[in-house]
Amino acid sequence: MFHPVQAFSFKKTCYGVYLLLWVLASGLHHASAALNSCSRDTGTGGAFLSAGDSQQVSIPTVQVQTDIPSLYKILDGFFPVGAAIWKGDITGPHSELLRKHFNSITTENAMKMGVLQPSEGTFDFTTADELVRFARANLMLVRGHTLVWHKQNPPWVFKDSGGNALRPTRENRALLLGRLEKHIRAVVSHYKGEVYAWDVVNEAVDPEQPDGFRRSPWLEIIGPEYIETAFRIAHEASPGAKLYINEYDTTNQAKRAFLLKLVRDLKRRGVPIDGVGHQMHNRVDYPSTAAITETLEMFSELGVGNQITELDISVYRNSTDSYPAVPEGVIFEQGYRYRELFQTLRRLKGKVSSVTFWGLADDHTWLKSFPIVRRDLPLLFDEQLQAKPAYWGIVDPSRLPTAAGVRQRNGAAR
Ligand code: G3I
Fold first, then answer.
1. Residues 86, 62 contacting (CB under 8 angstroms)
2. Residue among 197, 102, 219, 104 nearest 146 (CA)
3. Which of 45, 167, 216, 343 falls between 20 and 30 A from 395, CA-CA?
4. pLDDT of residue 26
5. Would you say 310 and 362 are in contact if contact means Cβ atoms under 8 Å apart?
6. Do residues 168 and 218 touch, judged by C-beta distance below 8 A?
7. For this structure, is 310 an active site residue?
8. 153 in contact with ligand 1, CB cutoff 6 A
9. Are 295 and 251 in contact (CB under 8 A)?
10. Are 306 and 353 in contact (CB under 8 A)?
11. How remote is the CA of residue 289 from the centroid of ligand 1, in Å?
12. Distance (Å, rounded) from C-alpha 83 to C-alpha 57?
């Protein structure tokens, strides 16, 4: 699983040959950044320079493992396995890793409204199209994310022609409904036949509100009907697409109760909703597998489907801790958590129709900057794209060390 020898020689390679090439190719400034990146990384030698989503630079030292089972093939017959991706994932070793282990993708940011319609009536599908083309060429499914959300919206959408924030008036309600409708029609039609499932409405529930609806501008200006409208229009634009309401923390009882009520109500009124997307941004200690099972079964009993849409398992238990180097014991614990979760998901066969990880490998994850900037390693492949205990927990749990083995390793490390 871990390759200390390989890691050591990799480290040498990282500091030696590639640093030299880097100096020659990119000048001293980049070299010193690369050196920082190497020394900041797991201690196994970093292979990436991460300077924000759009500028991640990979130094071509990583070798994708070819002698391990393909994740999606192992899970064939249960559900497709997806990864949220960005442009950097469709070239080089990242694309190899993606093609080997995943048969579905979600665009992490490229289909959000702010990206697709930066100014009113002007659509920019460039990046999303590239990712979709990659998926098609590699016979992967595409989940669309997301049509209506309170974040990553273009600044114009909640403003009037004078640039003032829209107040909740009857005129503005009609204006915003029109914008919502135009956006969804354009985007869903553009990807008709390509995107098989949409996260139509994202994070609409807020259990702190007496009625359970998040106070987003969509809600404040249009009212709760924005949800039903979004589903109806998406369905009109692509009747074959599966439509989901996507939400985080769905095991939270209060939130789950509101979501159940909302979905039941939408179904009763004939709104074309196929299921619930459970984001599942989990932690090593939360939520319990029992709560996950209960939640998935509750929605199943309601007669809608479940998809796991944004899975990751943070190595932290709270919002403030920060490890300079993540202890090996925690990485193993995470492996056990993934094992347990996938045992459950396999047991629930037929009730979960897709599982997507929120990222491909630990070198690129939103959790490096949320809730604070810290080293988090939430996915199945490490920063050098190598399979972690998390991967083995799903693919072959017998490769995980026993509890005694973990203690021994931790003891030995001290
Ligand atoms: O694209 C700009 C870039 O031009 C600029 O230089 C840079 C400076 O910070 O920002 C870039 O935008 C960032 C964007 O990701 C693309 O990288 C934003 O700052 C950053 O806030 C944004 O974060 C995304 C986040 O949603 C926004 O809330 C994450 O990548 C993305 O993983 C995350 O995904 C969400 C799901 O859509 C919904 N569920 C929760 C999940 C995690 O937050």
1. no
2. 197
3. 45
4. 31
5. no
6. no
7. yes
8. no
9. yes
10. yes
11. 29
12. 19
What are the backbone angles phi and psi of residue 243, rounded to the nearest 5°?
-120, 130
CA distances from 356 to 71, 101, 171, 199, 277 (A): 12, 12, 40, 12, 10
Find, among 107, 109, 102, the residue nearest to 138 by Cα. 102
Q: How many CA atoms lie within 13 A of 55 on its CB side?
A: 5
The SS3 of residue 149 is: coil
User: Are the beta carbons of 226 and 177 closer than 8 angstroms?
Assistant: yes
Contact, 93 vs 64, CB < 8 A? yes
Atom 17 (ligand 1): residue with closest C-alpha?
53
Please give the CATH topology (third level) of the domain spanning 64-413: TIM Barrel (3.20.20)
Check: CB of residue 34 under 8 Å from CB of residue 59. Answer: yes
Tokens of 98: 């993606």
Residue 295's closest CA among 314, 312, 277, 310?
277
Residues 6 or more apart from 366 whose CB is under 8 A from it? 108, 358, 359
Locate 144 and state its tokens: 């669309």
Nearest-5° angle of CA 158, CA 126, CA 156?
10
Distance CA 243, CA 236 (A): 11
Dmax over Cα atoms in the chain, in whole Å? 69
- Residue carrying the six token digits 């990222």: 359
Which sequence spans correspond to the domains of the chain? 64-413
> Which helix (H) or strand (E) covers residue 190, if one does?
helix 170-190
Verify whether ligand 1 is closer than 6 Å to residue 312 (CB atom): no
Considering only CA atoms, which of 321, 313, 319, 322 is closest in space to residue 285? 313
Let me know if 96 is a catalytic residue.
no
Residues of the chain with pLDDT under 70: 1-60, 407-414
Please say whether the beta carbons of 182 and 133 come within 8 A. no
* Annotated catalytic residue within 220, 228, 247, 310: 310
Q: Which residue has the tokens 């920082």?
A: 36
Identify the pLDDT of residue 5: 25
The residue to which tokens 């990864």 are assigned:
83
The reported pTM is 0.87
Q: Is 109 in the pocket of ligand 1 (CB under 6 A)?
A: yes
pLDDT of residue 403: 73
Tallying the residues shown for the chain, one arrives at 414
Place of tokens 């890793």: 97
- Which of 86, 28, 93, 100 minimizes the C-alpha distance to 56? 86
The answer to whether 204 touches 247, Cβ cutoff 8 Å, is yes
Task: State the pLDDT at residue 411.
Answer: 59
Q: Contact 193/247 with Cβ under 8 angstroms?
A: no
